[in-house]
Specification:
With about 250 residues, the protein is mainly beta. Helix content is about 5%, strand content about 25%. The protein is built from one helix and eleven strands, in the order αβββββββββββ.
């Protein structure tokens, strides 16, 4: 009987690990356990992919945009326009990489514009889990100031999609910009050649919308990555999502 219980436990653990993912930790996402404005149970599925585990996952931002304007949806970070910042992700399974994007919405989540695109090795294949992984990016210099929505998206190599969002406050640019933490792994370039309003939207795929990312053998190459692109380690080739007509290119 004990051996049967052990087998069942191991089977459950394996199933969880297959579906386990990474999630945004900083800035703290809506309804996350580390969000200082949380008022009630946290969302235990933030690191799981879209529509995982028999649950429908609303888009965008897992359906938490109605929290904006409420105490639970208050900003969790303050960033200066044009400043160097970083975000942190953690979890119990990085699926050996993938590709990510971060961006902002200044209209309560109706539209998002890319800040930085990471093509390959995001999350880092050998970057650990519990300790978290830091990624540098630059806040667009001309982004409107005020409370905005920051979004992190990730495609692994198993055609799975995750999206976490957080409320942050953008302050006007000054001569002294904030610096990212010293242990941040990626340093994204600062680009002002493309205005915030002209930057592309975030790629949405693998959500039953007809757009599919590469499976197993490649990581995502974004059709519209925006001006700030960080290349991965080249361990896997990069391939565009398909079909083009359903993927916005």
């Amino acid at each position: 009987m004990k051996s049967v219980e052990i087998i069942i436990s191991l089977t459950f653990l394996l199933a969880v690990q297959v579906q386990a993912h990474m999630q945004l930790v900083y800035p703290a996402p809506f309804n996350a356990s580390n969000n200082p404005h949380l008022d009630g149970p946290s969302d235990p599925y933030l690191q799981f992919p879209h529509n995982c585990c028999g649950r429908q996952t609303p888009l965008p931002c897992r359906g938490y945009l109605p929290l904006l304007g409420s105490p639970e949806g208050a900003p969790v970070a303050q960033w200066e326009a044009g400043s160097a910042q970083n975000f942190n992700i953690t979890g119990i399974g990085n699926h050996w990489g993938g590709s990510c994007q971060v961006g902002f919405s200044t209209d309560n989540g109706n539209t998002f514009h890319v800040a930085t695109t990471y093509e390959g090795n995001c999350p880092h294949r050998n970057g650990g889990y519990d300790a978290g992984q830091n990624f540098n990016f630059t806040v667009p210099s001309d982004i409107p100031t005020g409370d905005v929505v920051f979004a992190w998206t990730w495609f692994n190599r198993e055609q799975e999609f995750n999206m976490n969002c957080a409320a942050v406050t953008i302050t006007p640019s000054t001569s002294s910009s904030a610096s990212p933490s010293s242990d941040a792994d990626y340093a994204a370039p600062s680009s002002s050649s493309v205005s915030f309003a002209q930057r592309p939207g975030l790629l949405i795929a693998d959500t039953d919308n007809g757009c599919m990312t590469p499976h197993t053998t490649a990581e995502v190459k974004y059709p519209n990555p925006g001006p700030d692109v960080v290349m991965g380690d080249g361990a896997y080739p990069l391939e565009m999502p398909v079909p083009a007509a359903s993927c916005g290119y």
